[in-house]
Amino acid sequence: MTRFTAIFEKRNDLWIGYIEELPGANTQGRTIEETRENLKEAVQLIIETNREIAQKQMDKNNIVREYLVVHI
Hints:
- The protein is α+β, with helices and mostly antiparallel strands.
- The chain has one helix spanning 32-57; strands at 6-11, 14-19, 26-29.
- The longest helix has 26 residues, at 32-57.
């Protein structure tokens, strides 16, 4: 489980949401609840896509791959 900082702004009839620590993770919705769920999906898609791109670009013979836990 990873925690991110979500920012929500009310603009006219919509809520705008984005993740402070993850550029590109942003969305909108008619309610804050809808925006929150959309934002969770956006974060998952960005991380999955970045992981796939990185794996395709790696020389699999010369890498060490491990999970890194960072507490902030």
